Amino acid sequence: MATIFTKIAKGEIPSFKCAESEDFYAFLDISPLAEGHTLVIPKNVEDDYIFHLDAATYEGLWAFARKVATAMKNAIPCKRIGVAVLGMEVPHTHIHLVPLQSEGDMDFRKPKLQLEPAVMQAIADAILEEYEKL
Questions:
Q1: Residue 124 has what pLDDT?
Q2: Cβ neighbours of residue 107 under 8 Å, at least 6 residues apart?
C-alpha cells in the first residue's frame, strides 16, 4: 500500500510543490516549523529509513535536497536552511529543510504554524521559481 508521501508525489493528494525531478519531489510541510519548511522525498522508494536506501538513491536524494535548499535560501529571508532526518511520523524516507533565523527554530516540539493556503502557495511558487533558475 502506498504511503501518503507516495500519493503526494503522484499527484493523488494535493501538495504545495517546491521542486521535482524524475526521482525526487519536494513540497511544503503542512504543519511547518517556519514559513518554507519543506519535505524532500524519493518518489519511487518507500522505505522508512534513510540508511536503507541504495547508494544511488541516497546520494541523489541529498543532491536534490541541496538544490532545493539553495532555492529556499534564495526565496526565503533566513540565515540558514536547517536539515533534519527524523522519519518517525510517516513511513517514507524524508528530509526536513527548515529556514532558520536561530537554532531554536529547529525544535520539533514547538507549536507548528498554521498558514493560509494562499500563503503556502506563494511560498511554494517562490521556491519553485528559484529552483528552476538553478
A1: 98
A2: 33
What is the per-residue pLDDT for 125?
Answer: 98
Report the alpha-carbon distance of residue 49 to residue 42 in Å, rounded.
12
Going edge to edge, which strands form the sheet with 38-42? Answer: 17-20, 24-28, 38-42, 95-100, 80-84
pLDDT tens per residue across span 36-58: 999 999 999 999 999 999 999 99
- Give me the catalytic one of 37, 92, 94, 96: 94
**Euclidean distance between CA atoms 45 and 114, whole angstroms:** 29
Written in H, E and C, the secondary structure of 45-109 is CCCCCHHHCCHHHHHHHHHHHHHHHHHHHHHCCCCEEEEECCCCCCCCCCEEEEEECCHHHHCCC
- Tens of pLDDT along 76-117? 999 999 999 997 889 999 999 999 999 999 999 999 999 999
94 is catalytic: yes
Distance CA 107, CA 66 (A): 21
Count Cα atoms within 13 angstroms, Cβ side, for 79: 7
